[in-house]
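4.2 Preliminary Data

To establish feasibility before requesting continued support, the project team ran the inverse folding procedure on a target of 171 residues. The structure was first converted into the token representation described in Section 3, and no sequence information of any kind was made available to the design step. The complete token record follows.
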């Protein structure tokens, strides 16, 4: 058989991804209908060590290498392939909203950290509010603007972080 562990991937921490080749194992040319068995090592983060294309979920950033052994079940012939995947850190973000009085500007700020800089921002808040900027400034604040503002940031490599903040607008 011919083993194919697939291409190296960059995977965000905590995201589940299918690994392995397409196909992971190819029967020998002289016996195209040969049944194949698969053994992946190490088992860390895999949902199966005997599937052709297991899913991988890891939380700790860094590199991890996997090896797949493809065996022709009738003959016992084997081939091995390896691949190294990179687990990327998710960004973190904090948000702050100082208490304001109605009629003044409601200022909400965010501070991203980690991940791969080049962030995009997606805010949602009270009364259908949305924005795509790092920080928010809402002129002439009203009590209808108070409440929870949720923020998702996406780092350049696609990893996501989130935060929320409660904005207080006094009469």
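Position-by-position output of the design step:
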């Amino acid at each position: 058989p011919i083993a194919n562990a697939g291409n190296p991937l960059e995977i965000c921490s905590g995201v589940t991804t299918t690994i392995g080749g397409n196909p992971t194992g190819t029967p020998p040319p002289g016996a195209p209908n040969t049944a194949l068995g698969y053994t992946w090592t190490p088992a860390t983060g895999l949902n199966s060590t005997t599937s052709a294309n297991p899913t991988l979920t890891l939380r700790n950033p860094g590199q991890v290498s996997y090896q797949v052994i493809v065996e022709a079940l009738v003959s016992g012939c084997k081939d091995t392939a390896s691949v190294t995947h990179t687990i990327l850190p998710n960004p973190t973000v904090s948000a702050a909203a100082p208490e304001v009085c109605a009629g003044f500007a409601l200022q909400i700020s965010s501070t991203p950290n980690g991940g791969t800089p080049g962030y995009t921002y997606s805010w949602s808040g009270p009364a259908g509010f949305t924005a795509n900027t790092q920080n928010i400034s809402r002129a002439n604040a009203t009590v209808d603007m108070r409440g929870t503002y949720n923020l998702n940031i996406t780092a350049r490599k696609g990893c996501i972080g989130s935060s929320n903040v409660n904005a207080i607008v006094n009469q």
